[in-house]
């Protein structure tokens, strides 16, 4: 999979995308992430990519021309399966969306800044708008990093144990069950006997029951969907 990201602050993305599982995915050649500094397509020698909004009001808007030129140049190199704009008013990211995107080959992500991007870019280029929550960030870079991580870890071969992602929270519509590791007893706090039983069927049943219980307590809305 290849993911291109348009940003005015590429340095914000360099660290989260070059460590841990995302670094492993790229080192294995399973994921390629390329950052594009929008100022390379600026409208003048001062690197301008934003301007005042028509109609007045506080806050600058990212201009049409730099974004359109950048997107069109990248489209000459790749046919994008999705052009995603990360924005607070997009559809809220969930595991199902990450699963869908993990099946794509080429994705372009646009990071907004200031008051956002000119609506004409959204109307004519963007194919999907995604939010990571009902709150506002200073820019789209952190949201883009979250999106890349949630998708990239699902690619076959990225995780050492490929079944691990199948048991994450939300994969089956439930929150994940409790997990334990050694020692079996710590300060008198014991690991549930069933997990030490060596009986896979009983362990699976226990995990499902705990997942159901935790989901009912913490996220009952998931059970009503």
Question: Can you say what the CATH homologous superfamily of the largest domain is?
Answer: SPOUT methyltransferase, trefoil knot domain
Strand order of the largest sheet: 2-1-6-5-7
Number of strands: 9
The CATH architecture of the largest domain would be: 3-Layer(aba) Sandwich
Q: Might you state the CATH topology name of the largest domain?
A: Alpha/beta knot
Helix and strand content put the structural class at alpha/beta
Strand content: 15-25%
Q: What separation lies between the terminal Cα atoms? A: 31 Å
What global shape is seen? Answer: elongated
Q: Which CATH class of the largest domain?
A: Alpha Beta
Give the helix tally: 7
Tell me roughly what share of residues is in helical segments: 25-40%
Gyration radius, in Å: 21 Å
> Mind summarizing the main beta sheet?
5 strands, parallel
């Amino acid at each position: 999979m290849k993911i291109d990201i348009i940003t005015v602050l590429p340095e914000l993305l360099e660290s989260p995308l070059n460590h841990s599982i995302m670094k492993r995915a790229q080192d294995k050649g399973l994921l390629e992430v390329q950052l594009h500094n929008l100022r390379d397509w600026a409208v003048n020698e001062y690197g301008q990519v934003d301007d005042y909004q028509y109609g007045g009001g506080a806050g600058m808007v990212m201009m049409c021309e730099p974004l359109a030129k950048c997107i069109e140049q990248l489209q000459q190199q790749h046919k994008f399966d999705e052009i995603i704009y990360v924005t607070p008013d997009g559809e809220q990211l969930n595991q199902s969306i990450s699963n869908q995107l993990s099946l794509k080959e080429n994705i372009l992500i646009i990071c907004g800044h200031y008051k956002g991007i000119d609506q004409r870019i959204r109307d004519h280029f963007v194919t999907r708008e995604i939010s990571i929550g009902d709150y506002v960030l200073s820019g789209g870079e952190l949201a883009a990093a979250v999106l890349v991580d949630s998708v990239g870890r699902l690619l076959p071969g990225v995780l050492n144990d490929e079944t691990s992602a199948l048991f994450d929270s939300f994969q089956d519509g439930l929150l994940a069950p409790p997990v334990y590791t050694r020692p079996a007893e710590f300060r008198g706090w014991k690991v549930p006997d069933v997990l030490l039983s060596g009986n896979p069927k009983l362990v699976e049943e226990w995990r499902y029951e705990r997942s159901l219980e935790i989901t009912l307590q913490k996220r009952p809305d998931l059970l009503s969907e």
